[in-house]
Amino acid sequence: MAGGLAALLDDVAAIAKIAAASVDDVGAAAGRASIKATGVVVDDTAVTPQYVQGVTPDRELPIIKRIAIGSIRNKLVFILPVAILLSIYLPWLLTPILMLGGTYLAYEGAHKIWGMLTGHGHGEGAGGDPGTPVVLEGKEQEDKMVKGAITTDFILSAEIMVISLNEVADQPLLTRIASLVVVALLITFLVYGVVAIIVKLDDIGLGMTKRGIKSGALVVKSMPVILKILSTVGLAAMLWVGGHILMVGADELGLHAPYQFVHHMEELVAHAVPASVAGVLGWLTNTLGSAVIGFVVGSIVVGILALLPSRHGHGQGRGEQADTPAEPQAAGEWPGEGTIDVDPSVDPGKY
Fold first, then answer.
1. pTM, rounded to two decimals
2. Residues 62 and 51 sit within 8 Å (Cβ to Cβ)
3. Which end of the chain offers a freer environment for a tag, N or C, measured as fewer CB atoms within 10 Å?
4. pLDDT digits (tens, 9 = 90+) for 294-306
Protein backbone atom coordinates (compact mmCIF):
# COMPACT_ATOMS: atom_id res chain seq x y z
CA MET A 1 0.00 0.00 0.00
CA ALA A 2 2.78 2.37 1.00
CA GLY A 3 4.70 1.43 -2.14
CA GLY A 4 1.62 2.13 -4.29
CA LEU A 5 1.11 5.51 -2.61
CA ALA A 6 4.78 6.41 -3.11
CA ALA A 7 4.56 5.46 -6.79
CA LEU A 8 1.38 7.55 -7.13
CA LEU A 9 3.09 10.53 -5.49
CA ASP A 10 6.04 10.09 -7.83
CA ASP A 11 3.67 10.13 -10.80
CA VAL A 12 1.93 13.26 -9.49
CA ALA A 13 5.30 14.95 -8.98
CA ALA A 14 6.34 14.05 -12.53
CA ILE A 15 3.08 15.43 -13.93
CA ALA A 16 3.54 18.61 -11.89
CA LYS A 17 7.06 19.03 -13.27
CA ILE A 18 5.78 18.61 -16.82
CA ALA A 19 2.99 21.10 -16.16
CA ALA A 20 5.44 23.56 -14.64
CA ALA A 21 7.74 23.18 -17.65
CA SER A 22 4.78 23.74 -19.98
CA VAL A 23 3.84 26.89 -18.11
CA ASP A 24 7.43 28.07 -18.39
CA ASP A 25 7.41 27.32 -22.12
CA VAL A 26 4.16 29.20 -22.61
CA GLY A 27 5.44 32.14 -20.56
CA ALA A 28 8.71 32.31 -22.47
CA ALA A 29 6.99 31.98 -25.85
CA ALA A 30 4.38 34.58 -24.94
CA GLY A 31 7.13 36.91 -23.76
CA ARG A 32 9.04 36.62 -27.06
CA ALA A 33 5.86 37.11 -29.05
CA SER A 34 4.79 40.15 -27.01
CA ILE A 35 8.17 41.84 -27.49
CA LYS A 36 8.01 41.34 -31.26
CA ALA A 37 4.56 42.94 -31.35
CA THR A 38 5.66 45.99 -29.34
CA GLY A 39 5.61 48.37 -32.30
CA VAL A 40 2.00 47.56 -33.16
CA VAL A 41 1.07 47.84 -29.47
CA VAL A 42 2.48 51.38 -29.35
CA ASP A 43 0.54 52.20 -32.52
CA ASP A 44 -2.66 50.82 -30.99
CA THR A 45 -2.10 52.80 -27.79
CA ALA A 46 -1.48 55.98 -29.79
CA VAL A 47 -4.63 55.61 -31.88
CA THR A 48 -7.27 54.61 -29.31
CA PRO A 49 -7.41 57.76 -27.09
CA GLN A 50 -8.67 59.74 -30.07
CA TYR A 51 -11.94 57.79 -30.02
CA VAL A 52 -12.99 59.40 -26.75
CA GLN A 53 -12.07 62.96 -27.68
CA GLY A 54 -15.05 65.21 -27.02
CA VAL A 55 -16.91 62.52 -25.04
CA THR A 56 -18.29 63.56 -21.67
CA PRO A 57 -15.93 62.42 -18.86
CA ASP A 58 -18.44 60.01 -17.31
CA ARG A 59 -18.58 57.99 -20.56
CA GLU A 60 -14.82 57.77 -21.27
CA LEU A 61 -14.02 54.67 -19.21
CA PRO A 62 -17.22 52.76 -20.16
CA ILE A 63 -16.42 53.35 -23.85
CA ILE A 64 -12.83 52.18 -23.40
CA LYS A 65 -14.12 49.09 -21.58
CA ARG A 66 -16.44 48.28 -24.48
CA ILE A 67 -13.62 48.70 -27.01
CA ALA A 68 -11.33 46.50 -24.88
CA ILE A 69 -13.94 43.72 -24.74
CA GLY A 70 -14.35 44.00 -28.51
CA SER A 71 -10.57 43.78 -28.88
CA ILE A 72 -10.39 40.55 -26.86
CA ARG A 73 -13.25 39.15 -28.95
CA ASN A 74 -11.40 40.10 -32.14
CA LYS A 75 -8.24 38.31 -31.01
CA LEU A 76 -9.67 35.17 -29.40
CA VAL A 77 -12.87 34.47 -31.35
CA PHE A 78 -12.00 35.55 -34.88
CA ILE A 79 -8.24 35.89 -35.38
CA LEU A 80 -6.80 33.13 -33.17
CA PRO A 81 -8.65 30.16 -34.79
CA VAL A 82 -7.78 31.33 -38.32
CA ALA A 83 -4.15 31.94 -37.39
CA ILE A 84 -3.80 28.51 -35.79
CA LEU A 85 -5.40 26.76 -38.77
CA LEU A 86 -3.00 28.58 -41.09
CA SER A 87 -0.03 27.51 -38.97
CA ILE A 88 -1.19 23.86 -39.22
CA TYR A 89 -2.29 23.55 -42.84
CA LEU A 90 -0.70 26.50 -44.68
CA PRO A 91 2.35 27.53 -42.65
CA TRP A 92 4.06 28.89 -45.79
CA LEU A 93 1.39 31.60 -45.90
CA LEU A 94 2.44 33.11 -42.57
CA THR A 95 5.45 34.98 -43.98
CA PRO A 96 3.52 36.57 -46.90
CA ILE A 97 0.65 37.50 -44.57
CA LEU A 98 3.13 38.95 -42.11
CA MET A 99 4.72 40.96 -44.94
CA LEU A 100 1.31 42.29 -45.95
CA GLY A 101 0.86 43.51 -42.38
CA GLY A 102 4.35 45.02 -42.50
CA THR A 103 3.51 46.78 -45.77
CA TYR A 104 0.36 48.16 -44.20
CA LEU A 105 2.29 49.50 -41.22
CA ALA A 106 4.93 51.02 -43.53
CA TYR A 107 2.20 52.63 -45.63
CA GLU A 108 0.53 54.13 -42.56
CA GLY A 109 3.80 55.59 -41.32
CA ALA A 110 4.81 56.99 -44.72
CA HIS A 111 1.27 58.31 -45.32
CA LYS A 112 1.44 60.20 -42.03
CA ILE A 113 4.89 61.67 -42.79
CA TRP A 114 3.99 62.77 -46.31
CA GLY A 115 0.77 64.25 -44.96
CA MET A 116 2.75 66.34 -42.49
CA LEU A 117 5.30 67.38 -45.14
CA THR A 118 2.67 68.42 -47.67
CA GLY A 119 0.24 69.90 -45.16
CA HIS A 120 -2.50 67.43 -46.06
CA GLY A 121 -2.21 65.26 -42.96
CA HIS A 122 -4.95 65.26 -40.37
CA GLY A 123 -4.93 64.30 -36.75
CA GLU A 124 -2.15 63.57 -34.37
CA GLY A 125 -2.45 59.88 -33.82
CA ALA A 126 -0.07 57.42 -35.30
CA GLY A 127 -1.72 55.47 -37.99
CA GLY A 128 -4.24 57.94 -39.27
CA ASP A 129 -7.04 60.14 -38.18
CA PRO A 130 -10.12 58.51 -36.67
CA GLY A 131 -12.20 61.43 -37.85
CA THR A 132 -13.18 64.83 -36.58
CA PRO A 133 -14.13 64.35 -32.92
CA VAL A 134 -17.59 65.45 -31.89
CA VAL A 135 -19.34 65.32 -28.55
CA LEU A 136 -21.34 62.12 -28.75
CA GLU A 137 -24.24 61.55 -26.45
CA GLY A 138 -26.89 58.89 -26.70
CA LYS A 139 -26.58 55.15 -27.19
CA GLU A 140 -26.86 55.19 -30.98
CA GLN A 141 -23.96 57.62 -31.45
CA GLU A 142 -21.83 55.86 -28.85
CA ASP A 143 -22.48 52.47 -30.45
CA LYS A 144 -21.43 53.86 -33.82
CA MET A 145 -18.15 55.18 -32.44
CA VAL A 146 -17.36 51.98 -30.51
CA LYS A 147 -18.05 49.90 -33.63
CA GLY A 148 -15.59 52.02 -35.63
CA ALA A 149 -12.93 51.70 -32.93
CA ILE A 150 -13.35 47.90 -32.74
CA THR A 151 -13.07 47.67 -36.54
CA THR A 152 -9.79 49.61 -36.43
CA ASP A 153 -8.63 47.40 -33.55
CA PHE A 154 -9.31 44.31 -35.66
CA ILE A 155 -6.61 45.37 -38.14
CA LEU A 156 -4.10 46.05 -35.38
CA SER A 157 -5.03 42.88 -33.49
CA ALA A 158 -4.54 40.78 -36.63
CA GLU A 159 -1.05 42.24 -37.03
CA ILE A 160 -0.24 41.55 -33.37
CA MET A 161 -1.48 37.96 -33.48
CA VAL A 162 0.27 37.07 -36.75
CA ILE A 163 3.54 38.60 -35.53
CA SER A 164 3.16 36.66 -32.28
CA LEU A 165 2.30 33.41 -34.05
CA ASN A 166 5.36 33.73 -36.25
CA GLU A 167 7.49 33.83 -33.08
CA VAL A 168 6.03 30.58 -31.69
CA ALA A 169 5.46 28.73 -34.97
CA ASP A 170 8.03 26.07 -34.01
CA GLN A 171 6.30 25.27 -30.70
CA PRO A 172 3.84 22.38 -30.10
CA LEU A 173 0.22 23.15 -31.00
CA LEU A 174 -1.05 23.53 -27.42
CA THR A 175 1.88 25.80 -26.55
CA ARG A 176 1.12 27.95 -29.60
CA ILE A 177 -2.54 28.27 -28.65
CA ALA A 178 -1.80 29.00 -24.99
CA SER A 179 0.91 31.52 -25.90
CA LEU A 180 -1.41 33.42 -28.24
CA VAL A 181 -4.17 33.48 -25.61
CA VAL A 182 -1.70 34.92 -23.09
CA VAL A 183 -0.48 37.49 -25.62
CA ALA A 184 -4.04 38.47 -26.54
CA LEU A 185 -5.07 39.03 -22.92
CA LEU A 186 -1.80 40.64 -21.84
CA ILE A 187 -1.58 43.11 -24.70
CA THR A 188 -5.27 44.04 -24.53
CA PHE A 189 -5.08 44.79 -20.81
CA LEU A 190 -1.82 46.65 -21.30
CA VAL A 191 -3.05 48.80 -24.20
CA TYR A 192 -6.44 49.71 -22.81
CA GLY A 193 -5.14 50.08 -19.26
CA VAL A 194 -2.64 52.65 -20.51
CA VAL A 195 -5.32 54.29 -22.66
CA ALA A 196 -7.63 54.58 -19.64
CA ILE A 197 -4.86 56.30 -17.67
CA ILE A 198 -4.06 58.65 -20.57
CA VAL A 199 -7.63 59.82 -21.12
CA LYS A 200 -8.12 60.36 -17.39
CA LEU A 201 -4.85 62.22 -16.76
CA ASP A 202 -6.47 65.61 -17.29
CA ASP A 203 -9.27 64.75 -14.85
CA ILE A 204 -6.69 63.52 -12.35
CA GLY A 205 -4.77 66.77 -12.79
CA LEU A 206 -7.90 68.86 -12.30
CA GLY A 207 -8.73 66.91 -9.15
CA MET A 208 -5.24 67.50 -7.80
CA THR A 209 -5.54 71.22 -8.57
CA LYS A 210 -8.86 71.46 -6.72
CA ARG A 211 -7.22 69.87 -3.68
CA GLY A 212 -4.48 72.48 -3.76
CA ILE A 213 -1.77 70.23 -5.22
CA LYS A 214 0.29 72.49 -7.46
CA SER A 215 1.56 69.69 -9.68
CA GLY A 216 -2.03 69.08 -10.85
CA ALA A 217 -1.87 72.08 -13.18
CA LEU A 218 1.36 70.69 -14.63
CA VAL A 219 -0.34 67.37 -15.34
CA VAL A 220 -3.14 69.13 -17.24
CA LYS A 221 -0.72 71.31 -19.22
CA SER A 222 1.47 68.32 -20.09
CA MET A 223 -1.35 66.35 -21.74
CA PRO A 224 -0.85 67.80 -25.26
CA VAL A 225 2.89 67.07 -24.96
CA ILE A 226 2.23 63.50 -23.81
CA LEU A 227 -0.15 62.87 -26.70
CA LYS A 228 2.32 64.38 -29.15
CA ILE A 229 5.17 62.19 -27.86
CA LEU A 230 2.94 59.13 -27.99
CA SER A 231 1.97 59.97 -31.56
CA THR A 232 5.61 60.40 -32.61
CA VAL A 233 6.68 57.16 -30.95
CA GLY A 234 3.77 55.35 -32.62
CA LEU A 235 4.79 56.75 -36.00
CA ALA A 236 8.43 55.68 -35.55
CA ALA A 237 7.30 52.24 -34.36
CA MET A 238 5.17 51.71 -37.45
CA LEU A 239 8.07 52.41 -39.82
CA TRP A 240 10.55 50.40 -37.77
CA VAL A 241 8.35 47.33 -37.23
CA GLY A 242 6.90 47.42 -40.74
CA GLY A 243 10.33 47.74 -42.33
CA HIS A 244 11.83 45.01 -40.13
CA ILE A 245 9.00 42.60 -40.98
CA LEU A 246 9.49 43.28 -44.70
CA MET A 247 13.28 42.94 -44.47
CA VAL A 248 13.21 39.62 -42.59
CA GLY A 249 10.35 38.27 -44.71
CA ALA A 250 12.15 39.12 -47.94
CA ASP A 251 15.26 37.35 -46.62
CA GLU A 252 13.23 34.22 -45.86
CA LEU A 253 11.76 34.30 -49.37
CA GLY A 254 15.18 34.55 -51.02
CA LEU A 255 15.77 38.30 -51.38
CA HIS A 256 18.79 38.58 -49.09
CA ALA A 257 20.33 41.93 -50.08
CA PRO A 258 18.35 44.31 -47.78
CA TYR A 259 18.81 42.12 -44.70
CA GLN A 260 22.49 41.50 -45.40
CA PHE A 261 23.17 45.22 -45.96
CA VAL A 262 21.49 46.32 -42.72
CA HIS A 263 23.12 43.49 -40.77
CA HIS A 264 26.52 44.43 -42.23
CA MET A 265 26.06 48.09 -41.21
CA GLU A 266 25.02 46.95 -37.73
CA GLU A 267 28.24 44.93 -37.38
CA LEU A 268 30.38 47.82 -38.66
CA VAL A 269 28.94 50.20 -36.08
CA ALA A 270 29.23 47.63 -33.29
CA HIS A 271 32.93 47.07 -34.05
CA ALA A 272 33.72 50.78 -34.40
CA VAL A 273 32.56 51.85 -30.93
CA PRO A 274 33.45 50.81 -27.37
CA ALA A 275 32.01 47.51 -26.23
CA SER A 276 29.93 49.23 -23.54
CA VAL A 277 27.72 50.91 -26.16
CA ALA A 278 28.22 48.50 -29.08
CA GLY A 279 24.99 46.61 -28.43
CA VAL A 280 22.82 49.73 -28.15
CA LEU A 281 24.31 51.46 -31.21
CA GLY A 282 24.13 48.24 -33.20
CA TRP A 283 20.45 47.91 -32.36
CA LEU A 284 19.83 51.55 -33.25
CA THR A 285 21.55 50.99 -36.61
CA ASN A 286 19.33 48.00 -37.32
CA THR A 287 16.27 49.95 -36.23
CA LEU A 288 17.16 52.94 -38.40
CA GLY A 289 17.81 50.69 -41.39
CA SER A 290 14.45 48.97 -40.86
CA ALA A 291 12.69 52.34 -40.57
CA VAL A 292 14.28 53.57 -43.82
CA ILE A 293 13.13 50.40 -45.60
CA GLY A 294 9.66 50.90 -44.12
CA PHE A 295 9.53 54.51 -45.27
CA VAL A 296 10.69 53.65 -48.81
CA VAL A 297 8.20 50.80 -49.24
CA GLY A 298 5.43 52.82 -47.59
CA SER A 299 6.12 55.80 -49.84
CA ILE A 300 5.88 53.57 -52.91
CA VAL A 301 2.48 52.33 -51.74
CA VAL A 302 1.37 55.91 -51.00
CA GLY A 303 2.40 56.92 -54.53
CA ILE A 304 0.60 53.98 -56.14
CA LEU A 305 -2.59 54.65 -54.21
CA ALA A 306 -2.41 58.36 -55.07
CA LEU A 307 -2.45 57.43 -58.78
CA LEU A 308 -5.47 55.17 -58.47
CA PRO A 309 -8.93 56.64 -59.13
CA SER A 310 -10.76 57.29 -55.88
CA ARG A 311 -14.33 58.18 -55.18
CA HIS A 312 -13.17 60.79 -52.68
CA GLY A 313 -10.23 62.08 -54.69
CA HIS A 314 -7.56 60.91 -52.24
CA GLY A 315 -6.49 57.81 -50.33
CA GLN A 316 -7.87 57.28 -46.86
CA GLY A 317 -5.66 56.44 -43.91
CA ARG A 318 -6.78 53.98 -41.28
CA GLY A 319 -9.88 55.17 -39.57
CA GLU A 320 -10.40 58.31 -41.67
CA GLN A 321 -14.04 59.11 -42.12
CA ALA A 322 -14.43 60.08 -45.76
CA ASP A 323 -18.13 60.71 -45.45
CA THR A 324 -17.91 63.10 -42.51
CA PRO A 325 -19.33 66.48 -43.59
CA ALA A 326 -16.88 69.35 -43.57
CA GLU A 327 -19.15 71.79 -41.77
CA PRO A 328 -22.24 71.39 -39.59
CA GLN A 329 -25.46 72.86 -40.95
CA ALA A 330 -26.19 74.63 -37.71
CA ALA A 331 -24.78 74.87 -34.22
CA GLY A 332 -24.86 71.40 -32.64
CA GLU A 333 -26.44 69.76 -35.70
CA TRP A 334 -25.00 67.44 -38.33
CA PRO A 335 -26.75 66.44 -41.56
CA GLY A 336 -28.58 63.17 -41.22
CA GLU A 337 -27.68 62.73 -37.57
CA GLY A 338 -30.20 64.95 -35.88
CA THR A 339 -29.35 67.31 -33.06
CA ILE A 340 -26.40 66.51 -30.80
CA ASP A 341 -26.28 68.07 -27.38
CA VAL A 342 -22.88 69.60 -26.85
CA ASP A 343 -21.46 69.36 -23.36
CA PRO A 344 -20.50 72.95 -22.41
CA SER A 345 -17.80 71.64 -20.04
CA VAL A 346 -15.75 70.26 -22.94
CA ASP A 347 -13.11 72.62 -24.24
CA PRO A 348 -13.04 72.24 -28.06
CA GLY A 349 -9.39 73.34 -28.09
CA LYS A 350 -8.30 70.81 -25.49
CA TYR A 351 -7.12 68.31 -28.05
1. 0.64
2. no
3. N
4. 999 999 999 999 8
